[in-house]
Design a protein that fits this description.
The complex is a heterodimer of chains A (233) and B (244). With 233 residues, chain A is α/β, with parallel strands linked by helices. Chain A contains seven helices and nine strands. Chain A has a seven-stranded parallel β-sheet with strand order 3-2-1-4-5-6-9, sandwiched between helices. Chain A has a two-stranded parallel sheet with strand order 7-8. In chain A, helix 1 crosses helix 7, helix 3 packs parallel to helix 4 and helix 4 packs parallel to helix 5. Chain B has one domain: Rossmann fold. Helices cover 44% and strands 19% of the residues of chain B. The radius of gyration of chain B is 17 Å and the shape is globular. The chains are: A alpha/beta (233), B alpha/beta (244). Chains A and B meet through strand 8, helix 7 and strand 9 of A and helix 8 and strand 7 of B.
Amino acid sequence: MSAKVCVVAGVGPGTGAALSRRFAAGGYRVAMLARDAGRLAALEREIDGSRGYAVDVTDAARVKEVVREIGSDIGTPAVLVHNAVSGHFAEFLDVAPEDLERTFRTNVLSLLHLGQAVVPSMLDGRGGAIVVTGNTSAWRGAANFAAFAPSKAAQRILAQSMARSLGPKGIHVAYVVIDAVIDVPWTRQAFASRPDDFFARPDAIAETVFHVVHQDRSAWTFEVDLRPFGEKW
Amino acid sequence: MSDQRKAIVVGVGPEAGLGGALCKRLAREGCHVFVAGRTPDKVEAVVRTIRSEGGRATGAPTDTTKEKDVTALFDHAEKEEGVLDLVVYNAGNAAMGQLHDMDATFFEQVWRVGCFGGFLVGREAVRRMLPRGRGTVIFTGATASLRGKPNTTAFAAAKAGLRSLAQSMARAYGPQGIHVAHVVVDGGIAGDKIVKGLPQFAQAMGEDGLVSLAGLADAYWYLHQQPRAAWTQELDLRTFKEPF
């Protein structure tokens, strides 16, 4: 019962699954949050010590409820990895207000919901860590990114505000900028002609997230960029 | 061929300083460490400690602002068995001063140690690592790498230059297998320079108020160990207390 608990929000076949595997391998009980219950069930069977929770992280009330459930099922979360993401790519004139609102709800508001749900118990002396996975859009906008990049930039600044507020209280908040195309089935299809080295591997990303979570508090990182060695940037 | 891994750390001062701590950590990880610093006594002290712990180290007093010295350092390391795996550029002089009463020689000297030496060491490292298509080069940065303040006029200019150098190198040589990273140490370091040199400041910072040597060494080692499918170029480090 003494295993620490890690919540991974946004578990798809790529980074979320790799994070869940890494933390489980590191001795954590892992609570996996995603909308797709079927996918969670499959991962639950695969990863020892994991448990799936079907939830829409943009729903503040449900998030609160789920964090309570996690607490009574497997224990109070010591780590939250926010990996939920909603993408929308369109030229500026074609962006509907709802598109931007949707990316903001998933990428920014859900971090507020999840953060506010897990932080109070971390403040009870045990400390904790919150890592948010971002990407290049957190740093710069681009054509076709008008409905997406603003949400990632806002997410990064929300994380930084949390870091400055919560760090001195013993909660480590970090932001990971993945400046690359991640190796998942759909990107393999979209970039079919690219070699293996073109892609950032989810297990390599998970390795660095795990490292950051376990940094000594006398030397904490806020922002960490990641790209495969061959990336042009 | 040998499995022996070699590391060069440039900018080693007191044993209880970042350079010294990195040397000792790398030796514990199995590297043959080339300890490069300006002051022979300090270099020797680090070498002695590593050897007494059963590690491998070679002292190499070096003026990192002199091209000849830097080339000689790498030639020296090359002669020993093993492969050059990691080079750290940690030299820097956090000399303070305001522009209006600053000597031109002061500005130039701060830049020579803080930036030009990084160019010499970085260039030599890349030249020797490129044939193997492997290796890590890490530069030590500071808060001043990202912003200038009245008192850091010279230091910040040098550090910003070093950061740019590191980024250019990363973009140029990453695709050729060389991992170039820049570490932003955002705060005072819990080494002799501050703990013994500025005891009042160290005391005012309180427990955990300075970035720990062990924490820094962990981060440098982790950067070196990162799988190349996801490399970090810049890493910031501060204590949890730091009001950054």
